[in-house]
Amino acid sequence: MGLRNSMSVEAGNHVINSGNDSIRNYGNPHAMMGMGAHTLEEYNLIYKSYFKGWLTDEEVPLISSSGTYRIYAFDHGSSAGTNALGSIGMRLKSGNGDYTYWLEYRTTNYTYNTNTKNGVLVNLKGYMENEPQPSFRNHRSALLDMTPNSKDNSRWAQEDETDAELAIGKSFTDPWNSLGSRQLPKEDKRILQVRGLMSN
Questions:
Q1: For the segment 139-164, what is each residue's pLDDT rounded down to a tens digit?
Q2: What values do phi and psi take at 38, rounded to 5?
Q3: Contact 167, 33 (CB under 8 A)
């Protein structure tokens, strides 16, 4: 398929882009191509976007202005086997323009906990790229852990990423000074609203 592994950013208590972070291979336990392969989790939206007909730019729009945006759970498709109507994710560029945040909302991942129902998972596209193999897709995905060091990794290396979601009511600020995002109260189990704040 040409996909790279679904990875994560390990920065401990530091913010990304601080010089203290690294990429953890197979670090995404919520997605196929990461540790989620063991439990057959879905591909993340970055990787789904590489395959024709799986999703469109309109389903995961690139946000360029501040506002409140509604995201439908991408793991709740229609009875016809299509994606839910409306946006099933959103993309936001980093302040330096080099990277893209992909936000996704899942509700059926019960393998580790049910927290993915209560926030969004954030994958960063293009960060710390060092893949020399040209046969792979252009970019890899790296899950951001929004609750770092909340769990002990002594049992297995990706334990801490099992609660990586940006929870409702919490916010994240881009270290490249582009955006902040805050989750708003959900309307039902399949819908989440996200407020994106873009800098000038």
A1: 778 999 888 877 776 665 567 777 88
A2: -65, -25
A3: no
